[in-house]
Automatic annotation (TrEMBL):
Keywords recorded for this protein, A-Z: Membrane, Transmembrane, Transmembrane helix
Species in which this protein is naturally found: Dimorphilus gyrociliatus
Subcellular location(s) of the protein: Membrane
Coiled-coil residue windows: none
InterPro entries to which the protein is assigned, alphabetical: PMP22/EMP/MP20/Claudin
Protein's UniProt name: DgyrCDS1663
Organism classification: Eukaryota, Metazoa, Spiralia, Lophotrochozoa, Annelida
GO-annotated cellular components: membrane
Membrane topology field: Multi-pass membrane protein
Entry's transmembrane regions: 12-34, 72-93, 105-126, 138-159
Gene3D superfamilies with a match to the protein in the record: 1.20.140.150
Length: 164
């Protein structure tokens, strides 16, 4: 069957999953990329950059350990979401690979992404509260949304797997 025929024959849950997952991935990438995890006055703090009065600079090797941990878990979440999307596309558009295995991969990578996002936001929020900076901003919110999207992705994968 062709790709379009496979898409037409896919269930509504699978189509919803195919629609949702790229959006979750995009929101996650934007969330970890922008330097607006904390904003107070003219200062913005992100995972990769610190901006003060419009002048931005990367942390480099001077980053705190908690920033490095957040960066690492954010990257793990991104790679997990990419793996989930690849497995979902293979499951939907090909007939060559066992669907049950791909469903298990989809669920596992979604859960891995959710836990990685959770660790990222928990460590960052906890440490920002320690420093008295409670103005969590857009980047933080986008990663929280991708955390919820990862959980929904795992649930959709489970529902789709039950139909096989």
């Amino acid at each position: 069957m062709s790709i379009l025929e496979n898409l037409k024959s896919a269930s509504t849950v699978c189509k919803l999953h195919l629609f949702l997952l790229p959006i979750v991935l995009l929101l996650h990438i934007v969330g970890i990329a922008i330097p607006e995890w904390i904003k107070f006055g003219d200062t913005k703090i992100g995972l990769w950059k610190l901006c003060n009065y419009g002048n931005c600079g990367e942390y480099g090797s001077n980053a705190s350990d908690y920033i490095k941990a957040c960066q690492a878990f954010a990257i793990i979440a991104t790679l997990s979401l990419i793996g989930c999307l690849v497995a979902l596309c293979l499951r939907t558009f090909t007939d060559l690979i066992r669907k049950k295995l791909l469903t298990q991969i989809i669920i596992a990578t979604s859960i891995c992404s959710a836990f990685s996002c959770l660790i990222t936001v928990a460590v960052f929020a906890g440490k920002s509260n320690d420093t008295g900076r409670k103005n969590l901003h857009a980047g933080f919110a986008l990663v929280c949304i991708s955390l919820i999207g990862s959980i929904v992705s795992a649930i959709l994968g489970y529902i789709e797997g039950k139909k096989d």
